[in-house]
Amino acid sequence: MLQTAGVLFLLYYAVICVYVRRWNATFSRVWLFSGIVLIFAEVCRSQIPETIKIISAAAGTVFCAAVFFIFIRMVFLLRKPEEKRLDYLIVLGAKVDGRRITISLRLRLEKAFRYLQENPDTKAIVSGGKGKGEDISEAEAMASYLEEAGILKSRIVREGKSTSTEENMKYSIEEVPDSKKKRTGVVTNSFHMYRAVMLGKYVGYENLYPVTAKSEPVLFLNYLLREILAVLVFPVRRIWKAGKMSIDK
After folding, report:
1. Which pLDDT belongs to residue 132?
2. Are residues 116 and 207 in the same domain?
């Protein structure tokens, strides 16, 4: 069982590498590491103490239950009907390769463009700073894409200093006048939507709605697991951050 799972994990890692044409795609090495560990555990199973087996099985069961719980919540969120005539639409940034729009970001922008076309009173906030390997900020790349597609420049607000999803939501809310009363949508890929909405509510949005873009099928499982783990770790990060702030004071 463990060996079969390990082999499947290694095969999926190989598929990701072929698809993105590099060995170190975002989060992909988790599948490589997990596959090796599972195969090694199966090979050495007879030598592992019974107590360790019981503890590992219990920890694995709890982890799988937590992952399944978050996954179900994600599914319910994605099944919500799309809200129309929103006041603002936050388009979350993703990796820009130099100046080139990557596939995940293009899917978000295509969704944003269609929504803005159908809802002419909605304004867009393109959110994303400049990271490693990027010649321009993600906000600048997104604004240029939407303007070239035919969206008026006056309808686009640029937020170009954020470096994470939490900062995307935090800095974008500063661009929304009277944000507590405004109906605001967030555009991102399906695998990313649950955490984006969760962080949006955490930083202060009261009327926040998902406007979901498609995901790359090959990478969906990879990014989905990354997002679930990020959601599970978030409470620990909050506690750590609060403790650090109290120490600094």
Report:
1. 87
2. yes
What total of structural domains would you count in the chain?
2
Burial class (CB in 10 A: 0-12, 13-18, 19+), 92: buried
Q: Residue 210: give its domain's CATH number.
A: 3.40.50.620
Residues 57 and 99 in one domain: no
Helix (H) or strand (E) holding 115: helix 103-118
- Between the CA of residue 190 and those of 99, 154, 187, 221, 232, what are the distances in Å? 24, 28, 9, 11, 18
Position 86 scores a pLDDT of: 96
- Regarding whether 67 and 17 lie in a shared domain, the answer is yes
* Structural domain that includes position 136: 88-215
Q: Are residues 5 and 40 in the same domain?
A: yes
Answer for the pair 172, 128: CB distance below 8 angstroms, yes or no: no
The helix or strand, by DSSP H or E, that contains position 92, with its residue range, turns out to be: strand 88-92
pTM: 0.90
| Blockwise average pLDDT, block size 10, the chain, 249 residues | 91 95 90 94 86 90 94 94 96 92 96 97 96 92 96 96 94 84 94 96 92 96 95 85 59
**Are 211 and 105 in a shared domain?**
yes
Query: Do 130 and 225 belong to one domain?
Result: no
Identify residue 35 by its one-letter amino acid code.
G
What is the pLDDT at residue 242?
63
Q: In angstroms, rounded to a whole number, what is the distance separating the alpha carbons of residues 6 and 166? A: 33
Q: Residue 88: beta bridge partners?
A: 123, 184
Question: How distant, in Å, are the alpha carbons of 1, 13, 15, 60, 132 from that of 31?
Answer: 16, 6, 11, 16, 24
